[in-house]
Amino acid sequence: MRVRGRVRLMVALCDPCWNAHANQLALEEGATAPPKVEPDPDDVAWYEPPTCGDCGAVVRHYPTNYDRWVYLAVEDLPAKDVAPRYRWRLETIRAPYSPVAVDVVAMRIRGIEPLPSDPVRPAHRAVCLSPDALQEAEQEAEQERAADPE
């Protein structure tokens, strides 16, 4: 057993248990992007940023705190404009005993709801213009309205 995750002391599990836990969490949170491909240092071909396969928009590729990957939108939006299921924050991971940033990790916002004006980074699926994503976002909004009658 060893400590897992990109944030210190997230959990200590064996390999099969960790993979089962992290895969289940990734499915629940929508972190199903493939791992980021590191370009070969000897390759001189032009490197393009990743784009959405459905709508063609530029996306940002971030690791999660449990070693899975997620596509996020390019810019932050106010929390009031993003459904709770799609709210993420970017956390800078620093080297131990150093102010040097070594990684940026995406963390899903849970527990304490952000203020309506707080900036959050939406999952790309929330702002994707593909018909499937738009329909999914409409269904999510309807479920949220039904669960929160005011």
Compact description:
The chain is of the alpha+beta class.
3D structure, described in words:
The chain is an alpha+beta fold and 150 residues long. The chain has one domain. 24% of the residues lie in helices and 24% in strands. It has three helices and eight strands; from the N terminus they run ββαββββββαα. It has helices spanning 15-29, 124-127, 131-147, and strands at residues 2-4, 11-13, 60-63, 69-72, 77-78, 87-94, 101-108, 119-122. The strands form three sheets. It has a four-stranded antiparallel beta sheet. A two-stranded antiparallel sheet has the order 1-2. Strands 3-4 form a two-stranded antiparallel sheet. Strand 1 and strand 2 (11-13) form a beta hairpin. The chain is globular and about 55 Å long. The termini are far apart. The model has no long low-confidence stretch (mean pLDDT 85).
Low-confidence stretches: none
Q: What do the pLDDT scores average to?
A: 85
* Largest sheet features: 4 strands, antiparallel
Q: Helix-strand pattern, N to C?
A: EEHEEEEEEHH
Distance between the termini: 48 Å
